[in-house]
Description:
This protein is mainly α. The chain has helices spanning 3-19, 21-26, 35-59.
Amino acid sequence: MRPWEFVALFGALLLVAFASFGPIRRAAPGSDERKAPLLVATLCCMAAVGVLVVMLVKFVF
Length: 61
């Protein structure tokens, strides 16, 4: 992958993560509707960190 592809993937994952916070705020406190968007946000953030680490390892070291 080229460096800009890593940056695009990182940005897309963060965009999905932050977009999933909307339904979390609209759901009632303690409801099950908060669990799925929170899981999506967590997984996307973890994947974005993984993309960042791979990019650093590939292009810096």
